[in-house]
Amino acid sequence: MKTVIAATAFALTCASAAFAASHSETGNPMVGGAPMFMDKNIVENAVNSADHTTLVAAVQAAGLVDTLQSEGPFTVFAPVNSAFEALPEGTVETLLKPESKDMLVKILTAHVVAGNWSAEDITSAVKMSSDGFYHFNAVSGDALSAQLTPSGRVFIYDESGNAAEVTTADVRQSNGVIHVIDKVLLPK
């Protein structure tokens, strides 16, 4: 038992050291087990994240690769694979079909805001709001809202009131910033 505990402690120490080295090397948190580089754009970094393979496939199917590689700046709320898996069965497969491209573009652009919104910017905007929410528009034209919980967690709401928690904030890119979220935001 002591050997297992010691091995686990050693593995956690090594993982922490690897994260610290990667973070100090890139200045960014790791996402999906991969370092994120500030001199690479949103797409160049996202393709390396094991947690965002569904999002990358959707961006490719929607024809948004060139847009998200452009100068920006963009703030992207990037759902992880498990967020897509939580959608009703068959939804992702249907959205990836060529005949669903318009809907896919609408959903994906509901996760993108013009500008470079850091977690600090979002938090400050929420704190200054009169109702505890900061309201802003996605590139799709859909309304999004941000809320800060008393414990400091940030949630992004879509027009239907569905909440996605920001699980990793401030992943800086050459053309903006990514905030990893745990749910898919859906247009009304």
TrEMBL record:
Signal sequence interval, chain numbering: 1-20
Keyword annotations from UniProtKB, A to Z: Signal
InterPro entries, per database record: Adhesion/Biosynth-related, FAS1_dom_sf, FAS1_domain
Limits of the FAS1 domain: 39-185
GO CC terms, sorted: extracellular space
Alphabetized Pfam families for the sequence: Fasciclin (PF02469)
PANTHER family, A to Z: FI19380P1, PERIOSTIN-RELATED
UniProt name for this protein: Fasciclin
Organism of derivation: Donghicola eburneus
